[in-house]
Amino acid sequence: MMSVLLTAGLVLSVNAAYAQGPGEAPNSNAASAFDNKIIKKISADNMYNTIALLSKEPRTAGTPGELKGAQYIKGQFEKYGYETELQPFAFYDVVRTNVSGVLEIGGQDLKPYVFSGSFSGEVTAEVVNAGKAILGTVPDAVKGKIALVERGDNTFVDKVKNVIEKGAVGVILYNNTGTANNVGVADPGQNIPAVTVTRAQGTTLAEQLKSGPVTAHLKVTGSGYKVGTSYNVIAKMKPNKNKDTGQIVMVGAHHDSVPGGPGANDDASGVSAVLELARVMGNMPIDTELRFVTFGSEEKGLLGSYHYASTLSDTEADKIVAHFQMDMIGSKDAGGDNKANGLIMYTIDGKKNLVTDLASAAGVRTAMGEAVPYGQLGRSDHQPFHELGIPAALFIHSPLEPWYHTPADTIDKIDKNKLQETAEIVGAAVY
Ligand code: BES
Ligand code: ZN
User: Fold this and answer.
1) For residue 419, what is the DSSP state?
2) pLDDT at 194 over 70
């Protein structure tokens, strides 16, 4: 926990909020002088302006848009007096430019879907039925051949892995239902072309194989992986040397967006609150290290936060007592009629922890005026912290807005009141 002084302040204000007995007048302004040091300084206009600036263009991981955003964030942290670092990391980025897939059997092109990340290559070989390509069931006969594989029971990546291990030179996946063929994912390093056909095409091919060999010509172009560079932006404020709890409190958001999406709410909103809290806390005497981080490549699979977590030594990880993650905290169109304006704290295990306890109490004391509920969900950068045993939670509004991951996730959908409430809660809880 924080120092005696900070703890006392916190406990006092929590008690003030809860001390009200039956029949007593509601305590409409439960914020303590202690909370007010933070919340009175938080400006929703600042946050709004940050979102407007960051959402001018997509910040897709590995693109100049991300780097520009990250450099802006770093510059702001520096202005507020923080020790900063732009932490680069490499990641495999799917290539899908002018992608094309050809699968010719008996002079006819089945016009297959190319797996996301499929290796680009060309093979002509016999087709061998490999069932569902479950580990241990792939026939030796796929060696040097194209494996016909049915969807289901294991992942696409595992299917490709299992047939590569047996020497297959290509994959034809067929769907297990419906009429669509647009599924399939391959991993970097799975260097054989992999495509998908419809269930009808697949079962026809499986039947044909029963009555004799079938040769296929499989060609994939414009697909694969390239190595990209993404960034985390780290800002640290060390406590007073003579008054140091030896602990670290972290506040995070992700600065990358989905391709083509300006990501105003997802997650320039979280970044705006991170920057605003960093600004407000920049000049405060503290006894606990504050660490503000914006992560890259969250949308690619929480890559930035996993990378960051991997760079922490055991000693450093042990010092981190809390991680507050804000992701999608400002949409006008999210939250529905739920309590707390739809704000919810998600933990990975669905259990409350230090972060949710502090923030729930802060909700009562600040503009929200009520406790924030919690639930169970991953899907954001609180995950790697939880895996390190660090109390962590995601702050988000539920239900989601209809613009989630669309080009319509723009600044005009942002609600300053939601930004203000969330930043007050997280700010008061952190402080
Ligand atoms: N902001 C979302 C996370 C989210 C969405 C949380 C909806 C709760 C409800 C985040 O940026 C995101 O889209 N995450 C990915 C997961 C990731 C592992 C690629 C997602 O949920 O698809
Ligand atoms: Zn997000």
Assistant:
1) H
2) yes
Distance spanning both ends of the chain, measured CA to CA: 11
Q: How many CB atoms lie within 10 A of CB 24?
A: 8
Instruction: Spell out the residues 6+ positions from residue 289 whose beta carbon is closer than 8 angstroms to its own.
Output: 236, 237, 238, 239, 244, 247, 248, 249, 319
Backbone φ, ψ for residue 206 (5° rounding)? -60, -40
Strands 248-254 and 343-347: unpaired
Name the pLDDT band for 20 (thresholds 50, 70, 90): very low
Nearest CA to ligand 1 atom 11: 299
Atom of ligand 1 nearest to the CA of 377: 8
Instruction: Kindly indicate the confidence band of residue 205, based on its pLDDT and cuts at 50, 70 and 90.
Output: very high
Mean pLDDT in residue range 84-108:
97
> CA–CA separation, 251 vs 266, rounded Å?
16
Residue 345: how many CB atoms within 10 A of its CB?
A: 29
How far apart (Å, rounded) are the C-alpha atoms in residues 294 and 305?
Answer: 9
Q: Is 298 in the pocket of ligand 1 (CB under 6 A)?
A: yes
pTM of the model as a whole = 0.88
